[in-house]
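My current task is to audit a protein record that another person submitted. I have pasted the whole thing underneath without changing anything:
***
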Amino acid sequence: AMQCFPSLVLALSSLLGALALLQLSLYLRVPSRYGKHEERLCRPRGRLPARCAWFLQELPSFLVPALLLALRSPPRLEPLGCRLLCCLFCWHYFYRTFIYPFFTRGRPFPLQLLFFGTLFCIYNGFLQGYYLIYCAEYPNDWCTDIRFTSGLLLFLLGMGINIHSDLLLRQLRKPGEITYKIPQGGMFTYVSGANYFGEIVEWFGFAIATWSLPAFAFAFFTLCCIGPRAYHHHRYYLKTFTDYPKSRKALIPFVF
């Protein structure tokens, strides 16, 4: 039977933090090569339709924790707080795997980025699932702890912003259209990367609710990975649209 090895959790979390800094160094000046930014860079050869690519990439983040739970003997999570935390992680990736891809209208996705994205989802799905299912120890009243309740509220707020922003982005483009338009409404009133802002808030909420090194490492990775992309989106909009609202920030309302 699988056991908890704290040294493995520490090593994997530290590596995730290092990967976050690597992401930041790679993409702070030059955007990753897909979506609206690929036109200015060399186009990758191999691609998959966006719906298929997002489904394949996000699937391991849902399946790996489910597999780890199935392998656990007895197959249960205790206490209730731990069970809820694992459900939050799987809930997000259920949406990202089985709902979001079938509504997206994005451009075909580069196979190279799909490969690395899938590897990351396997890695992070294992780290978060392994910690929560085999290592995490919470008091029975963790559900009433201020860290859990405040983190849960942040998670739900962030997920709501993320889903609502994705909806607004989809409504900008009719089926078959590939042109980009200025997003309006919701958090887009304040920031160019409203969908990214929501996801960052979501995972920092999860980290606070979980109060664990793996979750904080993942939240930091999310910030370093999609934070620069929000910044490049902001610059793209400012350069492309002369009427783009100058009051909007890139990622954090009223700050950045």
